[in-house]
Design brief:
The structure is a homodimer. By secondary structure, the first copy, chain A, is of the alpha/beta class. Chain A has one domain: Rossmann fold (3-Layer(aba) Sandwich). Chain A has a 6-stranded parallel beta sheet with strand order 4-3-5-6-2-7, sandwiched between helices. In chain A, helix 2 links the parallel strand 3 and strand 4. In chain A, helix 3 runs parallel beside helix 5. The longest helix of chain A has 21 residues. Chain A is globular and about 60 Å long. The model of chain A has no long low-confidence stretch (mean pLDDT 96). Chains A and B meet through strand 1, strand 2, helix 1, helix 2 and strand 4 of A and strand 1, strand 2, helix 1, helix 2 and strand 4 of B. Strand 7 of chain A pairs antiparallel with strand 7 of chain B.
């Protein structure tokens, strides 16, 4: 890729290329019921790509509903992988699978996460919707705490999804709660591609 | 690009490729003091890229501090442009410019936004940190309301930054407030590349 998509109105401004004296692998939790948890994690992936990091996102609850990030991630020319592992949102109207099938899929996702986190081959791993998976008992608290403990010191681990468990929040360095002030669907607007999925 | 970075653990699962019956251009506001507003907007850009949308992000307050999304956006093979227009964060320690210089830069950014929003050439425009720019009187409320009014009906407009103005929130379809539960810098951890910038 040689095309440059980034420009400036202030071309003469000196740019501070800050680097921390000490590198630390952060534990970041994105929770709450508002829009902007998975998308925030995807944004960190864009940022991390800019810094040349090696990145993996494992999506726990998604898999049966097309979402733009699948093709979006494929269009990013960097060391990033996204694996969706779920059978769709458990307990949501229209989802045909029993809880046992969702749990089985989530358990495979935990196994994958354990292996990849332990491998040391990544600088950033996102466990997307793992908080929901825990809340719905598709994965167990001990499993999530183990994944966090396995994290190499310099690897960043991001856990997204509603209703993050207090023990997960306790272990995290940065926690944001995204509250819904308004959402378009409450006035009957259908989900829109590029914004909602 | 032929490399595929997206995989699945459930290859036989049928995928629902939902499309809304009615397309609507949404007004989305991402505000609050927690981490995850610009990153959420960047994530929507990844999603929108997946759907083949034409995208522009104008960054109002940034410009003097390197952030990974600049190179990250350059690595995305789609119709996306990012323009940073600011002189850095006005009023933040270490920023050498007087308010008048910040206002002048922000006024140029408003002019650019007005032209691009009116052009009809985009499906998604993000005005990054414009809420802060308004709060700091670098742009005026009337200017922001005019930008929203100029929005073509099918174009999505995303406005990020702390302390969104109530009149902007009134006009929005979807509003998320990102609250800080914890932040790593409060325990003395420096900003980390790929996560914080």
């Amino acid at each position: 890729m040689t095309r440059k998509n980034v420009g400036t109105l202030t071309p003469d401004l000196p740019i501070n290329r800050f680097q921390p004296e000490k590198r630390t692998g952060l534990i970041v939790v994105l929770t709450g019921h508002g829009k902007g948890k998975t998308s925030s994690a995807l944004g960190m992936i864009v940022r991390a790509c800019g810094h040349g990091l090696r990145i993996l996102m494992i999506q726990f609850m998604k898999g049966d509903f097309y979402t733009g990030e699948w093709d979006g991630i494929n269009k990013i020319d960097c060391d990033v992988e996204l694996i969706h592992t779920g059978m769709g949102f458990c307990g949501i109207q229209g989802n045909p699978f029993p809880r046992s099938t969702h749990r089985e899929a989530a358990q495979k996702a935990v196994e994958l996460a354990r292996e990849r986190i332990s491998s040391g081959g990544y600088d950033l791993i996102v466990l997307d919707e793992i908080n929901n998976a825990l809340k719905l008992h598709l994965v167990d608290l001990d499993q999530v705490l183990e994944l966090i403990r396995l994290k190499p010191p310099l690897m960043h681990l991001v856990l997204t999804g509603r209703d993050a468990h207090p023990e997960v929040i306790d272990l995290a360095d940065t926690v944001s709660q995204v509250n819904e002030i308004k959402h378009a669907y409450r006035k009957g607007i259908e989900p829109q591609p590029g914004i909602d999925f």
